Amino acid sequence: MSELSVNHLLGIKYLQSEDIELIFKTADHFKEVINRPIKKVPSLRDITIANLFFENSTRTKLSFELAEKRLSADVVNFSAAQSSVKKGETLVDTVNNILSMKVDMVVMRHPNPGAGVFLSKHINASIINAGDGAHEHPTQALLDSYSIRERLGEVAGKNIVIVGDILHSRVALSNIFALKKQGANVKLCGPKTLIPKHIEKLGVTVETNLRKALEWADVANMLRIQNERLDISYFPSTREYTQQFGVTKELLNSLDKELVIMHPGPINRGVEITSDVADSDQAIILNQVENGVAIRMAVIYLLASKIKQL
Amino acid sequence: MTKQKVLLNSKEVNIILHRLTSQLIEKHEDFSNTVLIGIQPRGAFLARRIKALLEDFYKIPQIQLGLLDITFYRDDFRRSDKPLKANSTTINFIVEDKNVIFIDDVLYTGRSISAALTALQSFGRPKDVELLTLIDRRFSRHLPIQPTYRGRQVDVINEEKVAVQWAENGVEDTVYLISK
After folding, report:
1. pTM score of the predicted model
2. Is B86 on the interface with A (CB under 8 A)?
3. Cross-chain Cβ contact A29/B89 below 8 Å
4. In whole angstroms, what separates CA A70 from the centre of its chain?
5. Strand intervals (E) in A145-272
6. Cβ contact A33–B72 (<8 Å)
7. What is the dihedral of CA A17, A23, A26, A27, to 10 degrees?
8. Using CA atoms, how far apart are residues A223 and A63, in angstroms rounded to an integer?
């Protein structure tokens, strides 16, 4: 397979396992590119990409922008804080206005789940979902799997536990889809209040005891406690959460294996993981960030190659 | 119906490889400031052969060989019907101030070499760049690019294809002319 089966990256749900493999193989080449003295290729010099961020983001936006620039695309940035969205313009109108300026591809983060899917039905451009509410964050899941593949050789057959706030996490959902498509075993661990009911239907298991989950796992993906999304109290206190679901060096050392620790960032040091865990050799958190640029270059490149020249 | 005709058999390919290697030695002597770069994917076979000849037959040690993929530098991205498939690039040396010899099997339009020249800039500023090619398809160039070392010059019409097969792929070294 040398072409993606989709024209947009709206979610991992819509990808086939062959698509994921193609994105990884392409990312391998881009990872080599971004480690050259000159980290840039001219492939997308006639493509313009709009980064539309209707919700705050620092690292994802930075990572997308770097990926776009390293492919030589022209980039325009838009964030809701300074926009006419505040004046009452609809999403389709906002995007169509931007597309009238001859934009070929849209990278969008939006607080509402399904915003990308909705947009793809109404506009004529390639769309990459950079996070839609608590729904999906496909490039994060791709770079997570890519980082596991890089550290452990392959994803298939590996045991991955996702720890934390599964309920509000788009990273968790995209990761579940991505890992299952690649044949990994997935377990979720967290307070019962933060694990959606019937989530087992996605082919995952649930464990509320962190130690048991870590004993089973090859990789632990530690999610951030998203205080900004916790509208009501889901656990008594941050301190109690840390005692039950925080990973410490002592806990890691008491396991008889080298567990790989991941975190999508930003880390709340001392909450999900302690500083010595975050900075240890077992953590691949900064590798994830580096791989994020290569993965996003691969996704953008592969989608752009489907936009045919007139 | 496709017809194929042998342009060069394995004995002829072997003689040409020795001649090209000798020409390289005449110019670059001990290769202390010279590196070979094979253009992926098909130039890699020829480049490895030349390196092996230089080291094993002509006893020049430590020839530096890199492989350069030009996919992301091609000028037909989004223009061809087939998606472009990338290959790996491995250049584990500094190109700055080196004499670089590009190696590719067939020189046709010159567009690959043009892309390779752009790609090479990402690895530094070479002292000079030469081009070695096994087959030079005359009269088919789109760009002003000519080989420094050529194995055999052939006159081929555009509908015809020149295919190089290497022993590494389980067949004898042969160069075919394929016409539809």
Report:
1. 0.90
2. yes
3. yes
4. 20
5. 159-163, 185-189, 205-207, 219-222, 260-262
6. yes
7. -120
8. 19
Q: Which of B79, B78, B67 is nearest to B116 (CA)?
A: B67
DSSP structure class, residue A201: G
List the domain boundaries for chain B: 3-179
Angle A178-A259-A245 (CA atoms, 0-180°, nearest 5)? 80
| Yes or no, beta carbons of B78 and A304 under 8 Å apart | yes
Distance from CA of A203 to the nearest CA of B (A): 34
- Domains in chain A (CATH in brackets) are 12-137+290-304 (3.40.50.1370), 138-289 (3.40.50.1370)
Q: What is the pLDDT along chain A (310 residues), one digit of tens a residue?
A: 789 999 999 999 999 999 999 999 999 999 999 998 889 999 999 899 999 999 888 889 999 999 999 999 999 998 876 666 667 788 888 888 888 888 999 999 999 999 999 999 988 899 999 999 999 999 999 999 999 999 999 999 999 999 999 999 999 999 999 999 999 999 999 999 999 999 999 999 999 999 999 999 999 999 988 877 777 788 888 899 999 999 999 999 999 899 999 999 889 999 999 999 999 999 999 999 999 999 999 999 999 998 876 5
The ipTM, to two decimals, is: 0.80
How many angstroms away from the CA of B124 is the closest CA of chain A? 8
Range B3-179 classified under CATH 3.30.930.10: no
Gap from B123 CA to chain A (nearest CA, Å) = 6
Of B77, B89, B124, the CB nearest to A305: B77
Smallest Cβ distance to A29: which of B69, B73, B121? B69
